[in-house]
Amino acid sequence: MSAVPAQAGPTFTLGRVYVWELPLRLTHWLLFFSILVLAATGYYIAHPFISVPGEARAHFVMGSVRSVHLYASIVFTLSTLVRVYWAFAGNAYARWSELVPVSRQRWRNFKQTALFYAFLSREPAHYPGHNALAGLSYAIVYGVYLVMIASGFALYTVYAPVGSPMQVFGFLIPIFDGLQMARLLHHIGMWVILIFAVAHLYFVVVLYSIIEHLGTLDSIVSGFKFTLREPRSRG
Questions:
Q1: Where are the chain's structural domains?
Q2: What is the fold of 23-47+59-229?
Q3: How confident is the model over 166-187, as pLDDT tens digits?
Q4: Tens digits of per-residue pLDDT, 209-223?
Q5: Dihedral angle computed from the Cα positions of residues 144, 149, 153 and 155, in that order, rounded to the nearest 10 degrees
Q6: Which conformational region is residue 89 in: left (phi greater than 0), alpha (psi within -120 to 50 degrees), or beta?
Q7: Cα–Cα distance for residue pair 73/37, rounded to 1 Å
Q8: What is the value of pTM for the model shown?
């Protein structure tokens, strides 16, 4: 009995697309490293675990950690503000409309992506930039970033020296209903960001780069991603 030849089906080719511009890539990595420093120093400030002999003024451990935390927060703040600005000045893949789904097409993309992540669909929603679900997640996280910046500056006013320009942020304290609420939100925000970072690494490294071979991990260095071109029938 002769074998039945396999039926020809559609094939997909990958096209290289320049997605992430240099300012976006720089802010991404500055945010990444500043978050690592802020999380480590912030945890120490809340739970000091280094003990040194002698008087504290001879070592100034907490003061040094607070200084590092402050400088990292400045990098974090400037990077966040540049990314917010780039949501209005960047290319089509960086725009705010890619983060907040406002069109029917983006909502369809959101639904298809959610079904794929929930293992209810076999077909991912291919898109060169952020898919709609990822874009909305980033928009929420950047909202958390802004809360972290505001609450952090409110907390720093307590330690800012007399005459420091940082004392201008004292008006934020009543907005947060006191320093305790600002501290609580700052602490919760840190864990939200760290949990998001773990999920972000999974989707970027495992799902997009290893399973789907879309070059998502490489793109944050080179700026280029791979996207599926229109299928064509095999001869």
A1: 23-47+59-229
A2: Fumarate Reductase Cytochrome B subunit (1.20.950)
A3: 888 889 999 999 999 999 999 9
A4: 555 555 566 778 888
A5: 30
A6: alpha
A7: 9
A8: 0.81
